[in-house]
Amino acid sequence: MLSPSFNNKDRIIETSSINETLFANNEKQPVLVHTEKPKKQYVLNGFGGFSSHLPTIQHSFNPEPAAYTKLREKRRLAIKKSFLHGWNGYKKYAFGHDELTPLSNGTNDPFGGWGATLVDSLSTLLVMDLESEFNAAMRLVHRINFKVNDDVSVFESIIRYLGGLLSAYDLSERKYRPLMVQAEKLAIALLPAFDTPSGLPAHYWNPAK
């Protein structure tokens, strides 16, 4: 049995007619304004009254053998030493800049010159319990001015700076208010980059505009 013929052109005309009918009146839709403060919700507790079926991801480990504890501690110290080697080089030759150029001990600022490596490293400094290094970095975080008159990558600014500031704020148990203050300043500076016909952000944006 042969299938009935189907004309794509007819379908396009039908769809266009439906769209024209729907939007012919150009009626304004009511705007709903919510004044209540949103409640803090947790993924594992579900949202909007719907309970989550997601299992917890924490694994209950058995007691660790002494030999493995010794090996793990050795590995942990090796990783920390490796990080400090890179961090101390950055701090000595390029502190406050985006990047250290290791062969020449010079600097490079492709991400607005706000100290991408410094902000990117804040969460690592906290995880590794390097309090003095974190405090030294925070002294520069206070002074970052996001109103630079230059085109910056919106994507890089969000993942490196905004992500770095917010993750450090959370990992520090929200003790360092300046991290949130700076994150808010950056978000406000980048917000106009999202004001596009498509709603998708521009690739680059000049925060000084």
From TrEMBL:
Q: Which domain of life is it from?
A: Eukaryota
- Tell me the enzyme class: hydrolase
Its EC number(s): 3.2.1.-
Q: Which GO terms describe its biological process?
A: carbohydrate metabolic process; ERAD pathway
A Pfam family annotated for this chain is Glyco_hydro_47
Gene Ontology CC: endoplasmic reticulum; membrane
Pathway connected to this protein? Protein modification; protein glycosylation
Which keywords does UniProt give here?
Disulfide bond, Glycosidase, Hydrolase
Gene3D superfamilies assigned to the protein according to its UniProt record, in alphabetical order: 1.50.10.10
Q: Which GO terms describe its molecular function?
A: calcium ion binding; mannosyl-oligosaccharide 1,2-alpha-mannosidase activity
Tell me the cofactors it needs. Answer: Ca(2+)
Which family is this protein grouped under?
Answer: Belongs to the glycosyl hydrolase 47 family.
Record PANTHER family: ENDOPLASMIC RETICULUM MANNOSIDASE MNL2-RELATED (PTHR11742:SF103), MANNOSYL-OLIGOSACCHARIDE ALPHA-1,2-MANNOSIDASE-RELATED (PTHR11742)
Q: What is this protein called?
A: alpha-1,2-Mannosidase
What is the originating organism of this protein?
Rhizopus delemar
